[in-house]
Amino acid sequence: RREWKKAVRVVREVEEECETSVERLRQVVDAMAVEMHAGLASEGGSKLKMLLTHVHNLPNGSERGTYYALDLEGTYFRVLRVHLNGQQSAILEHEVELQTIPQHLLTSTSKDFFDFIASSLKEFVEKEDDSELSVARRKELGLTFSFPIKQISVCSGILITWTKGFSIVDMVRKDVPACLQEALVRKGLDLRVAALVNDTVGTLALGHYHDADTVAAIVIGTSTNACYLERTDAIIKCQGLLTTSRSMVVNMEWGNFWSSHLPRTSYDIDLNAESPNPNDQGFEKMISGMYLGDIVRRIILKMSLESDILGHISSKFSMPFILSTPMIAAMHEDDSPNLREVERILKDILEIPDVPLKVRKLMMKVCGIVTRRAARLAAAGIIGILKKIGRDGSGGITGGRRSDMKMRRTVVAIEGGLYSNYTLFREYLHEALHEILGEDIAKHVILKVTEDGSGIGTALLAASHSSNN
Ligand code: ADP
Asked: How far, in Å, from the CA of 419 to the mean position of ligand 1?
């Protein structure tokens, strides 16, 4: 039928535009490495901010004692206690408590806000049974603060601006750990803020604690980011900044990466134009969980406008973000013979009833195209980082031939709901990694899933930056 052909044509066009051949992925790899260089050369030199974290000491498993973490993500926060016994894989135990921040505090004063948090922390800390590990040591805490910060040292950083509904005006341009520290003193709690970090850095710390070959960390959930360990002398923009350390963790803010080699479609262009932050977070808008569902929704909408295979169009179609990434994963991974899950989601969410099996298969294909592109681009991004630090195996090429130079075992810590819950996304990513690197090199690159870098990882950073050391 003509209508069917029109719908197939829409899908075929998307498929062509989303093409991620190995050649194209290699161009993305190179672009990532080039942009990393540029972002390290000067402030504002690239869309990649390449933020200095001042983290020089990653935990290595020898840490001992009890450490705390405070994870301030948004409208709730978590406090954690982690016991370490100096034997790498043995994080003896950890306890977590989740608390909601009362609405009125989001627009209050920094004193009221941090007094509230300090009270909760005090209650939590005082519940500790005096185990051997914690006696005679000053208690220390790592702070994960998921707002834009200008980091000054590992334990100080200035709030640039609030996001996520917060508006505590007197805190802007103030040193966040110092505000927390003052509140802790007011509450009479002897707890030192030893580290201020971004959640991706926590993931790297946790990965490195368990495996010293860990050189980078990636988070792919609702949003996406990456950080890695860089040689200090390669961070040109911080030269003059006296440091005795050989390396520093750099927070890439890779969601903002952009390159003309990225395969961009009209759906991406529209999504970007209608977003609250047009022209920002271009890479993130192609690869993270926040957006994949909405790209698929836009393609299905186009199909239904071009052909009548979906019957009349419900208003649900034009609602941004109505189709979430977990829903497209459920459609894509539907293994029932008649694609019942696809049918259910089309009916319940998009209000398209009675979609024939043939059309359901086409929908499934669309989910696959968008997810595959995302996963393969993420893989190229990861290899871009490895290339920048000479861990992609290309350093060994002599006279056009790979030399026998040994590729070192290289571990990348990875975390986030998109990667850990969406099996096909993960498989596409691994497949692309192998295609780009080739088997001989790829076998030395290990992606390791970590869990709770922003909590446990941050407590570990408090340990590796402890004044008790
Ligand atoms: P965060 O919101 O802090 O990134 P997570 O790392 O847990 O938290 O990631 C949650 C995101 O992961 C969701 O917003 C969604 O995009 C994605 N996600 C979660 N579960 C699935 C799933 N089953 N399939 C596909 N994506 C998923």
From this structure: 8
